[in-house]
Amino acid sequence: MTPLPSQPGHIAIQQLSVVFGTGKQSFLAVEDFSLQINPGEFVCLIGPSGCGKSTVLNSIAGFVSPTQGAILVDGRLIEQPGGDRGMVFQQPSLFPWKTVLGNVAHGPLMAGKPKAIAHKIAQDFLTMVGLAKFAKNYPMMLSGGMQQRVAIARALANSPRVLLMDEPFGALDTQTRFMMQENLLKLWSELKTTVVFVTHDIDEAIFLGDHVVVMSANPGRILKDIKIPLPRPRSSDLLIDPTFSTLKKDCFDLIRQESLQAFEQQLK
Amino acid sequence: MAGISKQQASLNRWTLILSIPLFLGGWEIISRSGIVNPVLFPPPSLVAIALYGWAKEGTLLVDIAMSLSRVLVGFISGAIAGILVGILTGRYQFIENLLTPVFQLLRPIPPIAFVPIVILWFGLSELGKWFLVFWGVFFTVWIAAHLGVQKVDKNLIRAAQCLGTPEQQMLPQVLFPGSLPYIFVGLRTSISISFYTLVAAELAGTFSGIAYRIDISQQNLQVGKSLGGLIILGIISAIADKSFGVVSKKLVWWK
B174 lies in a domain? Predict the structure, then answer.
């Protein structure tokens, strides 16, 4: 049995600005960032390092409070973290003292589900990421890629309306990363959760996203929201598709300009 | 074992086996040689006889039981209080602000300095002994738990929040297990601290206990019995420390 798909959420980011620190030390990380994400959409945020893409994600998660503007998920103002917005971090961040099953069952248990049902849900999601036989293992016995699959299963098992992913495959080797990307698309096509995916890898962003939002650095602003018209389901053949190459060049040029500017600013 | 010759391996094994016998043998020879005063520095054979006599009187077991009960009550109550308060001060800024200045002021006071006032407060009762051991254990465990909570991987806390973990579940689900490795270091240090404070506690008006017996025997010039008491104390705290090490490895196996 496949688990019930969660209700995908709508995200409205309205003129978001985030300032870190106060006085002379203060730093404008994100400025006037507005974005609408429709239910079930897969949106990638991309930009040079330090462009505030993680800050935008952390604001949706509720870890960072907006200095100005607001974020609404399904019309509800975001003020703090909550189970409706699942998150996958760059590090798997699994609870080392819990088994793989215990990690994935954590969300359903916290939502008040009885233990037997929570374990059943966890088992189903582990099956979906292909790790059912590792349910009784502890995270540290698993490879980095497997741990990250557990982290994805853990976030999805909680039936979030929105899945936030902060460079989740950044620490993995190229082969594993590619497998993970295809696996993620397959999961997403079954569950249709709204996904916001932060990365600095252009190929990854275009391969995964319905939209790629390119950001500028210092302060973080939207440079361009690029629609990715590539058909789904997507496979590795896309990487040699001429449309893919054109999109990649567009993104690359935008980011390259930005990176150069950021670099010159640092030299000043 | 790779890289170590057979001879080296057997030498290593024998030095380990002979360590304690060689120490006792050397002690016996020096005591009997006349270099030192044998009354003040009796050989281990006489210490063993004194210990045997102590056991035969029937007071040895009572003394051990009394000392152990004082250490256990003080240690367990100090550890529980230290862990609870440490997790609270580590997690909540306002509790930290309220308690930390006071604790930092009280913490450096050596438990032994409390002995006169403890006699005034609690008389010669057991409560006074428990209090002294508690005092020694509490602050060490509190600091360990406090730092432990603050060092819990921030991403684990964030991950738990994104999974809808309510704040009251944060403590048992994430903060406590996450700080356990630090808490155990604090608890292990506290074991030896509780034996130090036990000695202070038993020198302060009591009628039983290993440290009390060491003190009384010294006054009667029963030096063998005094030294025997020291050995018993050493053995008990070594066993406590080692078994705690084994237990903590089982309980925080992921570190």
Answer: yes
The sign one gets for the Cα dihedral B204, B206, B210, B216 is positive
Q: Mind listing the pLDDT tens digit for each residue in A171-217? A: 899 889 999 999 999 999 998 899 999 999 999 999 999 999 999 88
- Minimal CA–CA distance to A48: which of A211, A202, A246, A226? A202
- pTM of the predicted protein model: 0.83
> What count of Cα atoms within 13 Å lies in the side-chain half-sphere of residue B36?
13
Containing structural domain, residue B200: 44-251
B27 lies in a domain?
Answer: no
B111, B139 in Cβ contact below 8 A? no
Residues of B within 8 A of A160 (CB-CB) are: 162
What's residue A6's pLDDT?
Answer: 59
**Opening angle at CA A73, ends A69 and A74, nearest 5:** 125
Average pLDDT, chain A: 91
B interface test, pick of A64, A88, A89, A97 with most B CB neighbours within 10 Å: A97
Which CATH number characterizes residue B69's domain?
1.10.3720.10
Count: domains in chain B? 1
- B78 part of a folded domain: yes
Indicate yes or no: CB of A93 within 8 angstroms of CB of B254. no
> What is this model's ipTM?
0.90
Q: How far apart are CA A166 and CA B156, in angstroms?
A: 14
The answer, yes or no, to whether residue A1 has pLDDT greater than 50, is no
Angle at the Cα of B114 from the Cα atoms of B108 and B116, rounded to 5 degrees: 155
pLDDT tens digits for A204-263? 999 999 999 999 887 889 999 999 999 989 988 888 889 999 999 999 998 888 778 777
Judge contact between B228 and B63, C-beta under 8 A: no
Residue B156 has its nearest CB partner, among A61, A95, A140, at A95
3-state DSSP assignment of residue A189: helix
